């Protein structure tokens, strides 16, 4: 909780300060509600949620004095209501050997780092983990994944830069199966020559994975960078269409005042949110819980 609230400090303090500035020595009126709605929009909560919160703040309070804490408590309640249905842990089905997790997202969103953090978490739980360096487009991505492999003592399956990522995924599942490993985390490219090519490649990776195991991938995690704000919404659409996203991980919540984007995403796409990234370190991955996040955002 401490890591979460300090991670979300930039979102909560900018929202909290703005709310406190608004409500000082004023009675609640329409103009104040509009100002509150603006503050919520600036924190990237999205138009629907911002309108709903400002209506809830106004309910029964017109012409009365209102405190910043009153507003924050309504924000926390409304945000929790939106987030509660999507806050779901990532469940590893132990019957699958390996449980195959495909990790997708645009370049720089934090895929490789998240894979490293997940590998540390799963091996800490006593599971045997393998990593597949499926972002064969970037040499740096392959190197970075190998470092995470060493750090977490997990074997890494990697090919040369430019090699076929679908056959790499195929080889990785086959190897993980032979070795009876518990979890296989597959990295993917986040940028190729263009978006159509990227999506075609992802489709191919999924198709080839299914040839080895028709029930796989058992989870498709989309990693989203919170600092891109509303842009995250269209990333969800594109990746969901191509790869059938089963859950989200939102990274870099420590470096942004736009943490509210998670609320807009939950409202619009209703996809499960499993984890949030609150730093670059191996332990900076927190399970996503609605109440804690709502309290942290409201400040
Ligand atoms: P990829 O291209 O999607 O694989 O992204 P990377 O895993 O290489 O991450 C891109 C950059 O974001 C790296 O410098 C990471 O250290 C950084 N990063 C990843 N997750 C987080 C996070 O939760 N918080 C912060 N502050 N940085 C992060």
TrEMBL record:
<dbReference type="GO" id="GO:0005886">
    <property type="term" value="C:plasma membrane"/>
</dbReference>
<dbReference type="InterPro" id="IPR003593">
    <property type="entry name" value="AAA+_ATPase"/>
</dbReference>
<dbReference type="InterPro" id="IPR013822">
    <property type="entry name" value="Signal_recog_particl_SRP54_hlx"/>
</dbReference>
<dbReference type="GO" id="GO:0005737">
    <property type="term" value="C:cytoplasm"/>
</dbReference>
<keyword id="KW-0963">Cytoplasm</keyword>
<keyword id="KW-0675">Receptor</keyword>
<dbReference type="GO" id="GO:0005047">
    <property type="term" value="F:signal recognition particle binding"/>
</dbReference>
<keyword id="KW-1003">Cell membrane</keyword>
<feature type="binding site">
    <location>
        <begin position="105"/>
        <end position="112"/>
    </location>
    <ligand>
        <name>GTP</name>
    </ligand>
</feature>
<dbReference type="InterPro" id="IPR042101">
    <property type="entry name" value="SRP54_N_sf"/>
</dbReference>
<dbReference type="InterPro" id="IPR027417">
    <property type="entry name" value="P-loop_NTPase"/>
</dbReference>
<feature type="binding site">
    <location>
        <begin position="251"/>
        <end position="254"/>
    </location>
    <ligand>
        <name>GTP</name>
    </ligand>
</feature>
<comment type="function">
    <text>Involved in targeting and insertion of nascent membrane proteins into the cytoplasmic membrane. Acts as a receptor for the complex formed by the signal recognition particle (SRP) and the ribosome-nascent chain (RNC). Interaction with SRP-RNC leads to the transfer of the RNC complex to the Sec translocase for insertion into the membrane, the hydrolysis of GTP by both Ffh and FtsY, and the dissociation of the SRP-FtsY complex into the individual components.</text>
</comment>
<feature type="binding site">
    <location>
        <begin position="187"/>
        <end position="191"/>
    </location>
    <ligand>
        <name>GTP</name>
    </ligand>
</feature>
<dbReference type="Pfam" id="PF02881">
    <property type="entry name" value="SRP54_N"/>
</dbReference>
<keyword id="KW-0378">Hydrolase</keyword>
<dbReference type="GO" id="GO:0005525">
    <property type="term" value="F:GTP binding"/>
</dbReference>
<protein>
    <recommendedName>
        <fullName>Signal recognition particle receptor FtsY</fullName>
        <ecNumber>3.6.5.4</ecNumber>
    </recommendedName>
</protein>
<feature type="domain" description="SRP54-type proteins GTP-binding">
    <location>
        <begin position="272"/>
        <end position="285"/>
    </location>
</feature>
<dbReference type="GO" id="GO:0006614">
    <property type="term" value="P:SRP-dependent cotranslational protein targeting to membrane"/>
</dbReference>
<keyword id="KW-0472">Membrane</keyword>
<dbReference type="GO" id="GO:0003924">
    <property type="term" value="F:GTPase activity"/>
</dbReference>
<dbReference type="InterPro" id="IPR004390">
    <property type="entry name" value="SR_rcpt_FtsY"/>
</dbReference>
<comment type="subunit">
    <text>Part of the signal recognition particle protein translocation system, which is composed of SRP and FtsY. SRP is a ribonucleoprotein composed of Ffh and a 4.5S RNA molecule.</text>
</comment>
<comment type="similarity">
    <text>Belongs to the GTP-binding SRP family. FtsY subfamily.</text>
</comment>
<keyword id="KW-0547">Nucleotide-binding</keyword>
<dbReference type="InterPro" id="IPR000897">
    <property type="entry name" value="SRP54_GTPase_dom"/>
</dbReference>
<keyword id="KW-0342">GTP-binding</keyword>
<dbReference type="InterPro" id="IPR036225">
    <property type="entry name" value="SRP/SRP_N"/>
</dbReference>
<dbReference type="Pfam" id="PF00448">
    <property type="entry name" value="SRP54"/>
</dbReference>
């Amino acid at each position: 909780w401490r890591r979460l609230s300090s991670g979300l400090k930039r979102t909560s303090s900018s929202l909290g300060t703005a709310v406190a500035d608004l409500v000082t020595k004023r009675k609640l009126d329409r103009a104040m509600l509009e100002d509150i709605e603006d503050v919520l929009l600036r924190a990237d909560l999205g138009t629907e949620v911002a309108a709903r919160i400002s209506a809830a703040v106004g309910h029964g309070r017109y012409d009365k004095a209102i405190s910043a804490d009153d507003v924050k408590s309504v924000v926390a309640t409304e945000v929790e209501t939106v987030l509660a249905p999507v806050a779901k842990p990532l469940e590893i089905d132990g019957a699958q050997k390996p449980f195959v997790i495909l990790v997708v997202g645009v370049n720089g969103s934090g895929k490789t780092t998240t894979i490293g953090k997940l590998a540390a978490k799963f091996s800490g739980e006593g599971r045997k983990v393998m990593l597949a360096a499926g972002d064969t487009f970037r040499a740096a991505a392959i190197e970075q994944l190998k470092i995470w492999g060493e750090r977490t003592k997990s074997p890494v399956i990697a090919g040369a830069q430019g090699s076929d990522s679908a056959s790499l995924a195929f080889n990785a599942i086959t190897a993980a199966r032979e070795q009876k490993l518990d979890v296989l985390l597959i990295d993917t490219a986040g940028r190729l020559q263009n978006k159509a090519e990227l999506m075609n490649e992802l489709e191919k990776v999924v198709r080839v994975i299914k040839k080895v195991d028709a029930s796989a991938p058992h989870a498709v995690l989309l990693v989203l960078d919170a600092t891109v704000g509303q842009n995250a919404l269209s990333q969800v659409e594109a990746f969901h269409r191509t790869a059938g996203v089963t859950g989200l991980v939102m990274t870099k919540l420590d470096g942004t005042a736009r943490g509210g984007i998670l609320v807009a995403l939950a409202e619009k796409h209703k996809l499960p949110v499993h984890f949030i990234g609150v730093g670059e370190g191996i332990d900076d991955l927190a399970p996503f819980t609605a109440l804690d996040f709502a309290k942290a955002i409201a400040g």
